[in-house]
Amino acid sequence: MLPEWIDYNGHVRDAYYGLIASSACDALMDRIGIDAAYRRRTRCTLYTLEMHVHYLSEVKESDRRAVEVTILGSDVKRLHAGFTLRRLPAGPVAATVEFMLLHVRQGDAAGSAPFPPEVAAAIAALAAAAPAAGFGPASRALSLAGGARQ
To answer: What residues contact 8, with CB distance under 8 A and at least 6 apart?
Structure first.
């Protein structure tokens, strides 16, 4: 952690929980096949439509931390991913962060685009490996209902 991440109480500033989760989202993209080579080849990437953060426990400057991902849902163009930030070793959950992500084609013909089969399969495999039941506290719901944005 950088010194500017720490507030006057010696805790990680609230905005940096989001930065930590955003970096974990980048790692998720690599894991499901939306890596740098894919982005160059297809001009497709993920855009964040919405993000919710639940602050559950403080993270101090000296704390080590880990982030776990849970696939909370997906459809042909969107991915609802949850990230759990924990203090190590075996510390309490410090925060949960939900992202609603949209697969987007960039460039002159920009717009949402379906996931290719190999990415959809990787998302499904990850969802099956880590069930979404019991993820984080409830708040205003993020969901896939209501149709994708174009």
So the answer is: none
pTM of the model as a whole = 0.85
Q: Which fold has domain 3-129?
A: Thiol Ester Dehydrase; Chain A (3.10.129)
Q: Are 47 and 104 contacting, i.e. CB atoms less than 8 angstroms apart?
A: yes
Distance CA 80, CA 12 (A): 25
Q: Is 4 a residue whose pLDDT tops 70? A: yes
Query: What's the half-sphere exposure (Cβ side, CA atoms, 13 Å) at 17?
Result: 27
Domain coordinates in residue numbering, the chain: 3-129
| Residue 104 neighbours by CB under 8 Å, 6+ apart | 44, 45, 46, 47, 110, 111, 112, 113
pLDDT band, residue 108 (cuts 50/70/90): confident
- Tokens 């970096």 sit at which residue? 23
What CA–CA distance (Å, rounded) separates 119 from 31?
Answer: 9
Closest by alpha carbon to 24, among 69, 72, 64? 69
- Cα–Cα distance between 90 and 123 in angstroms, integer? 27
pLDDT in tens, 46-68: 999 999 999 888 878 777 888 99
Neighbours of 1 (CB within 10 A): 15
